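hey team, just a heads up i'm posting the complex here instead of the shared drive bc the drive is being weird again. everything in one block, sequence lines first with there labels, then the predicted structure for the whole assembly after. its two chains so it's a bit long, scroll down
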Amino acid sequence: MTFKRDPGLPYQKLDEETIVVDPRSREVHLLNETAARVWELLASPRSLDELAAALGEEYDAPQSELRAGVDEVIGGFRDKGLLDPGGQPVRG
Amino acid sequence: MDSAPRCQDDAVIASPGDHAVVSRLQSMAYERMIPLNVSLELTLKCNIRCLHCYNFDRDTAGPVCGDAVSTSAPELELPEVLRVMDELRAAGCLFLSLTGGEVLTYPHLFAVLDRAREINLAVQLLSNGTMLRPGVAARLGGYRNLLGVSISLYGATAEVHDGITQVRGSWRRTLDGAERLRAQGVAVRLKLIVMRPNAHEVAAMRALADRRGFPYMLDLTITSRHDGTDGSLAMRVDPEQLDALYRGPLGDLIPSGGRPVSEAAFPCNCARGNCAISSRGEVYPCVSVPWSAGNVRKQPFIDIWRGSPVFERIRGLRIADYPSCAPCPDKGYCSRDRGAAYNASGSYTGIDPFVCSAAGLARKIGEARATTGR
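-- predicted structure starts here --
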């Protein structure tokens, strides 16, 4: 399964962090450095493995740890309604 | 600064839990001079004829005119508007206010909203609400990046409101429009403009907003017009009305003991985290200060933002540069409205005597309250 950020959500970089504004929920989300990078990568659809691999090129950490971190970030985005609701099916 | 000063019109989102995050972003913009908040005037056309309008005298039959610099230039075409939006985003804009005239008269409004969504701008509209028909409200409800709509209301009754807009039925249409928009899930905030003909209804206006469950802001600012006429000033509350308002239904606007004022500068977000662009492309420090820093038809926005002598001047101002304000004992109670000062005096560092007398009155009442505890 791939994930993509909701393309309609306003956001702004704040140094290494990113602020995402959700007018519908009236919430403002402050993403830490890792979550901000994932947010950037989610401009186009990516799977969890693809996200972990991309982070692996930037961070010196075991792949399993990166995968777990990505999993947590995506889960947070999903819970907060920040992902594109039109998700894509698993590629064959 | 812990929290950069912002114009009231910017604050449609006001969730307590988010305040610290937004404040941090605004402070960063203020310190680094990033145009985080931009007001973009799409048109000067309007479907009502408010007596207090600051654009131009709406009772004139002449061509649409606006700022003193380019009264005969045509309004920006859609491709120009879209280009400017891209430039604003690249410069760091996040919060874009669309205004007019009446923004809903602008024929390409939805193309502008589409572009704002594509480039992840958070948008709010400033409107009179009268054109929010069901289809329009539904369409606006589909924009997830729409922060909200600020709708101006001038009375608790049709008689008073319509007398100010000079359009019968406008009060009803404004309230119906606000309700329709809210039903579509869009945040609506009423802007209650207090002036001479509605001063007696202020308490009723607040009660109406409360009863209908609309958040609101109050504004007493009436300035002379950007076309150089000053007939709008006749709509300002008179001193007796202001006294009664501050001792009555607007008493809560006066901070007990006053606000702290830095001796280094008059904090203002003009040309630091905020600017405005007129429908003819003039870039101003703020929507109410028609002091042109340049025109986006002639220069890229970022060149104006970074290199304009006007903006350089404003950014370098310290309290000592305001000759009347620096020694004034009423500073802690003053709105320090730069638009009022500029329009009244022709100088950014000048004064508007009405604002001064309002501050004096507020200090008198505020200090008495602080002393008596009432």
